[in-house]
Design brief:
73% of the residues lie in helices and 0% in strands. It has 9 helices and no strands. Helix 1 packs across helix 6.
Length: 200
């Protein structure tokens, strides 16, 4: 039996991409075989060619999200420049832009009680904070303070992501406003002589 002309065989990556779209649109519960098959215009048979069950599809989708939003970003920042100040600027701009585009991350945080999701969030969070600690350490901050500032930076990132997806008009929406906002973020996070972790 030949496939209809112009219709290609779906690849594993098509199912993963559709699962991520489903998470963005309806949360982790939306990762269900039949609705995603309908979204792709195919049958469950195509799914079982690539995955043994729904759990395997969810794991693959989580791995793809982790690669796209964390592993690739860490590699990009590490290779971007040798100057840690430039790395910090690049990192902040990159993650703020990503926070505004990534609709999967907030949906995953809402489902953090599910074991597979919790494991992915734990890996991503630790990797991201580890990168920020490294950048602050390279800027000359002692390790304890680098970690304290990294936690502050990551908390600010999560807050930014929440605002970007939940409260329209709060974040700056002009190019000039965004530049000023980013300058302020960088200035606060990298300021010398601020409160140290040992002071608290």
């Amino acid at each position: 039996m030949h496939m209809a002309e112009g219709k290609r065989r779906l690849a594993r990556e098509d199912w993963v991409a559709a699962a991520l779209d489903a998470i963005a649109d309806g949360g982790v519960a939306a990762v269900a075989v039949e609705p995603i098959a309908a979204r792709l215009g195919t049958t469950k048979g195509s799914f079982y060619w690539h995955f043994p069950n729904r759990a395997a599809l969810l794991e693959a989708a989580l791995a793809q999200w982790e690669e796209r939003t964390t592993t690739a970003v860490i590699a990009e920042i590490a290779n971007a420049t040798e100057d840690p100040a430039d790395q910090l600027r690049t990192l902040i701009v990159r993650v703020i832009e990503a926070a505004e585009r990534d609709r999967v991350g907030p949906a995953l945080l809402a489902a953090a009680g599910q074991p597979a999701v919790a494991r992915a969030i734990d890996r991503v969070t630790r990797a991201r904070i580890g990168l920020i600690v490294t950048v602050f350490s390279r800027l000359g901050f002692p390790l304890a303070e680098a970690r304290s500032r990294a936690l502050l930076a990551y908390s600010a990132y999560l807050g930014h992501a929440q605002l970007a997806h939940s409260t329209e008009g709060v974040l700056p929406d002009t190019a000039e406003g965004r530049r000023a906002y980013l300058r302020d973020v960088i200035s606060v996070l990298a300021a010398q002589g601020g409160p140290r972790a040992s002071d608290t």
